[in-house]
Amino acid sequence: MRRWGTPAVAIVLGALLAIGVGIAVATRDAAGPAPSAQPRGVPRTGAGDTSVEMSADAAAHPAGLIVRDLLQRHYDAINARDYAGWRATVVPERSERFTEPEWRAAYASTRDGTIRVDRIDQAAGGEDAGLLVRVRFVSTQDVQDAPADLQVPRICWRSTLPVRGLPPLIDVTGAGSSLREAC
């Protein structure tokens, strides 16, 4: 039986360790920030970090990574003024409510950040009913682009987003699905 020399074993082990660390870092980056028990605080100015953060509870949900990816693409599209990208994250009934010029006007100065998914729940009606995603975020915008009843440059939102389908898409929301306040 032939034995490897100590230098060869050290090189092989070192290479395996480097590969393992690389995979761990790539996987972590793809999954976004690590889940946290406490949400990031609201920044003193601006919208804050644009990466979607997951609570430990939301990250543990079987659809956690899929929901995180969906919301990351959704908010990235809004921040980039990418109408086609935004449409790819919502059901057709939702996107049909906005022509591209209307959407661009509505989000002309919007910047969303400090985004956190607090919970993911099964919607009433079983698996076919989809999910309810509890998300909070900070939105900044020019005052004239803010909602008519809250003309401020920075808004803290708490929303419940219905998500359904394969691939999952953000469904139409109803009145009362979002709470907002100046922050």
Could you explain how this protein is built, in words?
This protein is of the alpha+beta class and 183 residues long. The protein has helices spanning 6-31, 56-60, 64-80, 83-87, 92-95, 100-106; strands at 53-54, 111-122, 131-140, 154-164, 169-170, 178-182. 22% of the residues are buried.
Brief sketch in words of this structure:
The protein is α+β, with helices and mostly antiparallel strands and 183 residues long. Helix content is 35%, strand content 23%.
Tags for this model:
single chain, 183 residues, alpha+beta, Nuclear Transport Factor 2, Chain: A, 6 helices, 6 strands, globular, disordered N terminus
Secondary structure elements and pairings:
Elements: H1 6-31, E1 53-54, H2 56-60, H3 64-80, H4 83-87, H5 92-95, H6 100-106, E2 111-122, E3 131-140, E4 154-164, E5 169-170, E6 178-182
Parallel strand pairs: 1-2
Antiparallel strand pairs: 2-3, 3-4, 4-5, 4-6
